[in-house]
Amino acid sequence: MSKKRLLFDALTITIIAFSTFSGLSQAGTQNATPDEAAHKHEASYRAAWQLLNDNYLYAKRLANWKDWQNKFHGKLRNAADVNRAIDAMLKSLGDEFTYIYKADDTVTVSEPCMTWRRLSNNAGYIKIAHFHSSSLLPKMRRALFALQDAPAIIIDLRHNHGGWVELTCRAAGFFVPKGTLASLHGRSKNHEIDTRIVLSEQDLIVFKDGSLSVRPREPLLAGNKPIIVLVNEDTRSAAEMFAGVLRDLRGAIIVGKRTFGKGVAQDVYSLESGDILKFVSARIVLPSGVCIHGKGLVPDYEISSKRKARGQKVDQQLAKAVDLIDRGTGIAASSRGVPIM
After folding, report:
1. Among 327, 303, 328, which residue's Cα sits nearest to residue 316?
2. In this predicted structure, what is the pLDDT of residue 8?
3. How far out from the chain centre does Cα 326 lie?
4. C-beta separation of 246 from 265 below 8 A
5. Helices 79-91 & 34-55, crossing angle to 10 degrees?
6. Distance from first CA to last CA of the chain, Å, rounded?
7. 3-state DSSP assignment of residue 182
8. What pTM, to 2 d.p., does this model score?
9. By C-alpha distance, which of 213, 276, 208 is closest to 51?
10. Which residue in 62, 126, 235, 285 has the fewest CB atoms around it within 10 Å?
11. Which of 319, 332, 338 is nearest to 154 (CA)?
12. Residue 211, exposed/middle/buried by CB under 10 A (0-12, 13-18, 19+)?
């Protein structure tokens, strides 16, 4: 089966790519002889080793990688052996974002990707739960059309663990007039590779390793409305990128707590054994030139989440955002970043 490595794979579980490497196809082993099955398991392990050797971001951590190439030769008799061997190999890298897991362990996201409402001050409130669903774009389009008369927009990214990079960049088009949304610096086929994702007035453009791809952008429905973004310690990955892009290119104010700090892209491969191999292949750089990996985004206003008042919980972060709008601070801040065109 042909290898499918899509440009926007990566921040979370998004794309399952089938490699041309022997051992990473969908061909089964149910009818194979013991020797044939053992050969297939060995091939799966070698293929996983090769993928990391050629594409893993942190090349310096591969200094002793050759020691693992034939470490389990003749010892892999079933899928469980392969899983344990690859798991041990990956753990030697000391990277929490590079691992193997069973396809059955994948959690289906059932939570609505987005909800919205008007607040008492007529500001729009948009809660984005994740960037995993293609329904996000039409939902956001309808919400922003309905909020055309809102004085400002609050985007809540708290507890958002990210999602698809492509979807995140497309959603940014509703709010950002133009600019470089993100740069990815990584490894592919044993050499360094750079990718830039750029938003023009008409298109979303991707420059990757000398190639170019273009698709129509989403309309700038937010206009020049002030934007306030709510984040917390559980805002991760693509959600952090989205918040950073809005601050860098749109002058959005960020309210809440320092975010999780996951600023790397991952490649995802399906193994013949039914396991999923996921490894770091690139680091993400925001428009400001900052990579938030291991650091997180520092909010403009650091506010704890909730407190009790008269026996009831009060969302202090949302209350701060509303206060900034009411006092005009959010409106004044919209002049930061790239001018609205």
Report:
1. 303
2. 38
3. 33
4. no
5. 20
6. 46
7. strand
8. 0.85
9. 276
10. 62
11. 319
12. exposed
Residues 116, 139: Cα–Cα separation, whole Å: 9
At 43 the pLDDT is 86
Give the integer Cα–Cα distance in Å for 77 and 184: 39
Least Cα distance to 1 among 35, 39, 34, 28 occurs for 28
Q: How far apart are CA 247 and CA 287, in angstroms?
A: 9
In the chain, what's the furthest Cα-to-Cα distance?
Answer: 74
Residue type, 211: S
Q: So what's the pLDDT on residue 147? A: 97
- Collect all residues with Cβ–Cβ distance below 8 Å to 189 and sequence separation of at least 6: 54, 55
* Residue spans of beta strands (DSSP E) within the chain: 99-102, 114-118, 124-128, 153-156, 179-188, 191-199, 203-208, 211-216, 227-231, 253-256, 264-270, 275-285, 301-302, 306-309, 312-315
Determine the Cα–Cα distance for residues 55 and 280; give it in Å rounded to an integer.
8
Distance CA 168, CA 172 (A): 6
Angle at 107 between CA 104 and CA 109, to 5 degrees: 145
**Residue appearing with tokens 């994702």:** 197
- Residue 305 is predicted with a pLDDT of 80
> Phi/psi of residue 192, each to 5°?
-70, 145
Residues of the chain whose pLDDT is less than 50? 1-10, 12-23, 25-29, 333-341
Predicted pLDDT of residue 5:
32
What is the distance between the alpha carbons of residues 155 and 260, in angstroms, rounded to a whole number? 17
Q: Angle at which helices 165-172 and 238-250 pack, to 10 degrees?
A: 30
**Could you tell me the two tokens for 300?**
């403009």
DSSP-assigned states of every residue in 197-241: EEE-SSEEEEEETTEEEEEEPPP-TTTT--EEEEE-TT--THHHH
